[in-house]
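Re: beginner question about structure tokens

> Can someone show what the tokenized structure looks like for a real chain? I only ever see the sequence side.

Sure, here's an example I had lying around. Input first:
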Amino acid sequence: MSALYDLYRKLGNDRYGEAIGQLAPYFATIDPQFVRLEPGYCEIVLRNTRSVHNHIGSIHAIAICNGAELVAGLMTDVSIPENRRWIPVAMKVEYLAKAVTDLHIMADGKAIDWSVLGRISVPVEAVDAANKKVFTAEISMQIGEKQTG
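And the corresponding structure tokens:
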């Protein structure tokens, strides 16, 4: 089992975001609130606070991208076989609407064959408080064998 998944199960939703921010400080800039993490799925809430706003008072596009990379990466980590490693290598995003409420950002990898080596595409979407899709992304992850020795 993934060490990050073990940590999640130990800390729970309320404390996991802070722990991730300690491990990877840039993720702390969005103060992610975890909803669910399990093999094949990860969901966070990105709160609509001033600290993530752009100049027009909505959630900044890169803050949403930060959340997208977080959910895609964690979902990948807890989904791949233990003898594998991963790294994001590309991200294609679409901004569909202005983000003016809290957002739920989700990576759903239930349809992904996690046994594959090489590049896989992880779908991510963000919805607002009215369940309107405001953002989509495809994040390419390079999956390889862990180095031993």
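Each token stands for a local structural state, so reading them left to right follows the chain. The chain has a mean pLDDT of 96.
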